[in-house]
Amino acid sequence: MFQFQHIDYLYFLGLLPLLVVLYIAAIYWRKRKLAKLGSEQLISEQIRGFIAGRNTFKFILLSIALASVIIGWANLRMGDKTEKVQRKGVDVIVALDVSKSMLAKDIQPDRLTRAKQLIMRMTEKMQNDRIALIIFAGKAYLQVPLTVDYSAVKMMLQNVTPDMVPTQGTMIGDAVDMSMQSFSQKERKFKSLIIISDGEDHDEQAIEKVRQAADAGVIVHTVGIGSPQGTTLYDPATKALKLDENGYPVVSKLNEEALRAIAMAGHGTYSLLQNTDDVADRLTTNLEGMEQKNMGSVVYTDFTSYFQYFLLAGFIALIIEWLLPGVKRKKNEAK
Question: Any alpha helices (H) in 4-149, and if so which ranges?
């Protein structure tokens, strides 16, 4: 099975579309300048040694070289050796609030981004636990089932937006129901649910459902995102200030009281997200303090890396681009 060792490095591939846009803009700028002087075709023919399409071909080679280097940097690899080991851990489900109030900027850059950073930091600290990801607003959806592939969770997090849940609201109770369906039904321990939310406009049944989850052996922790003072909201599409039915600005506030009550009902802890590392440490320490279950014999794989082939391809593309002349050479110049 192929996988990238440093999957985060692939985000640098996002530079390529930006470079393409800049290159196209430069081409149009050049065409406008030439159009002021006369026919573009005639002027191009008068330019000494001009080769149509040569600059574009050289740009494509440079783009291929950049993409190859980035992919090589991320280190594509494939498992070829196996080793069986015993590991112990717990099952952890993270329920992430993606309601539009999570776009509030009372903590920078915004509530949702900070929540994602917290989850990523947690996965970096976790070792043997299985983790799953649920997103919720007016309805809950399972995005990643329980797995030890932390990179899959990180990849999914990059694409999480409020638009993924069309129904708005903060249905924590629905997220709890989805979590209970995702946990093993055969065990009454080794399970933890972490709810990350601003707690705003939560459903009244949430606490009762959390109590039922706790009775089934699930420890429920909550993390509050935002500030009790709150801040105004802006429509992400229009960038306009959101107004209520009376024409007043909508203010979104962190509901710490509700999140504390949920954590208490779930026999867990409540944390206010201020320092990401501190909260990640606190949560992972709580998980390590739980009774661990034997996950059985798990196959871990040694990998063969293929980064060198991508680096070689990038190097070859750079050499070709460097050797490829940008203009025609006249015969008398070659003598």
Answer: 15-37, 40-46, 54-74, 111-125
The rounded Cα 108 to chain-centroid distance in angstroms is 17
**CA neighbor of 75 nearest in space, from 7, 155, 124:** 7
C-alpha 68/C-alpha 309 separation (Å) is 9
Rounded to whole angstroms, how far apart are CA atoms 110 and 91? 28
The residues, any chain, with a CB within 8 Å of residue 200's CB and separated by 6 or more, are 99, 101, 170, 252, 253, 254, 255
**Residue 91 and residue 185 in contact, taking contact as beta carbons nearer than 8 Å:** no
**pTM tops 0.70, yes or no:** no
Four-point Cα dihedral 230, 231, 237, 243, nearest 10 = 100
Task: Classify domain 84-296 by CATH number.
Answer: 3.40.50.410
Tell me if 4 sits within 8 A of 74, measured CB to CB: yes
State the Cα–Cα distance between residues 319 and 68, nearest whole angstrom. Answer: 14
CA angle 139-275-164, nearest 5°? 20
Residue type for position 46: Q
Q: How far is CA 302 from the centre of its chain?
A: 26
- Spatial neighbors of 235 by CB under 8 A, at least 6 apart, are 241, 242
Q: Which among 218, 152, 150 is positioned nearest to 181, based on CA atoms? A: 218
pLDDT in tens, the chain (335 residues): 778 888 888 889 999 999 999 999 988 887 777 677 655 555 555 555 556 677 888 999 999 999 999 999 999 888 776 666 666 789 999 999 999 889 998 999 999 999 999 999 999 998 888 999 999 998 999 999 998 888 889 989 988 999 898 888 788 999 999 999 999 877 778 899 999 999 887 777 899 999 999 999 999 999 999 998 888 877 766 777 777 777 778 788 899 999 999 999 999 999 999 999 999 999 999 998 887 776 665 555 677 889 999 999 999 999 998 988 766 655 554 44
Distance CA 98, CA 112 (A): 7
CATH 3.40.50.410 domain range(s) in the chain: 84-296
Residue with tokens 């794989």: 301
